[in-house]
Design goal:
The protein has about 100 residues and is mainly alpha-helical. It has 2 helices and 2 strands, in the order H-E-E-H.
Length: about 100
C-alpha cells in the first residue's frame, strides 16, 4: 500500500512538472516599457478653497457701479477691481461739509 502511494505521488509530481515546464524555452517573457499619461478619477465631497484668497475691506461703503473682474480671476496690486457710484460719495461729501459749517 505504501509503495502504491509513493508511486502515485511520483507520477503526479512528474505530470505537474511536465505541465509547468512544457513549452518554456527558459527565456522569461519581456515587454518594452512605454511612457503613458496617468489618468485617475477621484470622487470626494467637500469644499474646495484657494490658498491664495484675500479678503478685501474698504474705507467707505457705497453702491457698486462697475465690477472689472470676474470671480476667480487673478488680480495684481494696483488693479482697479471695481468702482463705486460717485453720486453717493458726493452726497456724503456735501453732508460732511454742512456738518463742519454748522459747528463753526
Amino acid at each position: 500500500m505504501k509503495k502504491k502511494i509513493i508511486a502515485i505521488t511520483i507520477v503526479l509530481l512528474a505530470i505537474g512538472a511536465f505541465l509547468i515546464f512544457r513549452g518554456n524555452d527558459g527565456d522569461p517573457d519581456t515587454v518594452t516599457a512605454e511612457e503613458r499619461e496617468l489618468l485617475e478619477e477621484v470622487f470626494e465631497t467637500g469644499v474646495v478653497r484657494s490658498g491664495d484668497t484675500l479678503n478685501l475691506s474698504f474705507g467707505i461703503g457705497g453702491t457698486l457701479e462697475s465690477l472689472n473682474v470676474s470671480e476667480g480671476q487673478s488680480v495684481s496690486r494696483g488693479d482697479i477691481v471695481g468702482r463705486l457710484k460717485s453720486d453717493d460719495l458726493e452726497i456724503r461729501r456735501s453732508q460732511t461739509l454742512s456738518q463742519i459749517d454748522a459747528k463753526m
